[in-house]
Amino acid sequence: MERFLHRLHCAVLVATGQLSASAVARIYGDSPSAVTKWAVRFRAHGLGGLREEQRSGRPSTLSAAQAGKLARFVGERRAQSQPVTGPLLADFIERSLAVRLTVRQCWRILKKMGRDAPGV
What we know:
2 domains; mainly alpha
């Protein structure tokens, strides 16, 4: 939702002529081409043009059952106020699920589960 609102704000500023795409891009740290794309989609399709598009990507390495076991592990650790780190998660996944993931991949999993950044 946050990304949608960001795109909307940028698109409205450009679509209403308040600022140029380059100015909006400079202010908000986006590329001018991205801001232009959002403004064009907003003009053509309204709010729907700014919704998240499906992205292709590598399928998950973990099955639904493995993801459930992982979520339970993280939930139990958090319930006990124990830290969950990328290295800890990588070790758990390799030992318990027989899947090898990089520490970076594990930080991404934690971020999706509500942990914003290492050390938080």
